[in-house]
Amino acid sequence: MSKVREKIKLTSYDELLKVEITDGLKEIDVDKLHDFSNHPFKVSDDEKMEELTESIRERGVLLPILVRKTNDEEYEIISGHRRTHAARLAGIEKVPVIIRELSDDDATIVMVDSNIQREEILPSEKAYAFQMKLEAIQHKGIKGEESREVVGEANGLSGRQVSRYIKLTNLLPELLEMVDEKKIAIKLAVEIAELSESEQQEILDYFNLGYKVSLEQVKAIKNKEKSTDIIERSEEKTQQSAKVTISRKKLKQYFPENYTKAEMENIIYQLLEKWKSDGYDI
């Protein structure tokens, strides 16, 4: 550990909760709790939320919500956005909270650490969470590559891997959504994120038209080749490689032995045209 990191105390979520349950525990109106500013983790009304809502409806909120006071008896949620949402859905008016005094940077670090360990985290959630935590750590004096290493430590990632995730925040929203939906691999998405907005829009247009975009194509665009030329050239190559070949041996049973290849092809095309004109959809 560097001397800089030894001097800088990073408050962890575990440290905050290593207190007696009565220390700072209060019952707060759920309407006084507000989401963390720019909270990067999605709270969706999915099947798991239904299960959590039903559990809270039956047993209440068992794990207190971690909050910090803002003003006028209002509170910002640091950890517990899903529980808070489920409590609202269940019609719970008051929830248990632990109130802590935290700076903006400490609150951001704890908010990220308390959410990033969930089983199902989308690439977009990781990207924005890592970006927020990185900025908070840098504000506390840890700079450069070391700050990325600190972010990655809690998740078993290298500083380089953290940087790659953060690059995803430069993607157009539609492309980032495709990454979350596993329509674009993260490795390819990182390369696309380094393109200009107009170049990303061109790639998005081609994705929407059903074309595939490869890593090599994106790298070629980064080298200032025109994206339309590269993708169209690739499409031509794909079409050429998709041609259909029928062996001469199979065709012999349908044509006299003295027919040339050109004559056989000509008859096949004539038959296909007649088939099409007769109303058969090929």
UniProtKB/TrEMBL annotation:
Residues forming the ParB-like N-terminal domain are: 26-116
The organism's superkingdom is given as Bacteria
Q: Which InterPro entries match?
A: Chromosome_partition/occlusion (IPR050336), ParB/RepB/Spo0J (IPR004437), ParB/Sulfiredoxin_sf (IPR036086), ParB_N (IPR003115)
Stretches of the chain forming a coiled coil according to its record: none
One Pfam family hit: ParB_N
Recorded hits in SMART domains, A to Z, give:
ParB
Q: Which family does the entry's similarity section mention?
A: Belongs to the ParB family.
NCBIfam families assigned: parB_part (TIGR00180)
Q: What is this protein called?
A: ParB/RepB/Spo0J family partition protein
